Amino acid sequence: MSLAAFSAIAALGGSGARRQLRYDRTGIAEGELWRLVTGHFAHLGMTHLILNIAGLAVVWLLVGGGYSLLHWIFVIASSLAVIDLCFWFLDSGLGWYVGMSGLLHALLVAGLVSRFRVAKGESLALAALIAGKIAWEQLAGPLPGSELSAGGAVVVNAHLYGVVAGSLAAGVLHVITLRRLSI
Fold first, then answer.
1. Distance (Å, rounded) from C-alpha 171 to C-alpha 114?
2. Per CATH, the architecture of 2-182 is what?
3. Between the N and C ends of the chain, which has fewer C-beta atoms within 10 Å?
4. Span 24-61, pLDDT tens digits
């Protein structure tokens, strides 16, 4: 809920706020480090914002019960860090980015991992769909209609990096849980 609220508040500032909040490589290089977080909550426009909030609601309905609040905070924070590191080191040509789609992919994947034991078939089916979507985007570009519906270019690598980030976060939480159980 807080992610949606922060995104909605960011949208109230219009295009000026979007420019100040977006992930912007030049700004970050000049020390504007807030952009590493706020870029994920700024959007291209109201349609983009509504699509991302709807995506957040779907993710929450599917996997929201998979972790405690503290674990979800860890997933969010670590995923933002991994996505930003990937942008910085693997996508040096990316000048700017806005939107929550990378984080949404991270949350969904981490949640699927958390629910694997209780919903194996559902988790595997959704994981296969995500893998297919990521493969399509890496080979053929954005899904048909996604740029039109979002109101601008889709940074498909954000989705890939989100999947990696969510997987890593879930792995860390799994290892921590195993260690606690063995003590």
1. 9
2. Up-down Bundle (1.20)
3. C
4. 999 999 999 999 999 999 999 999 999 999 999 999 99
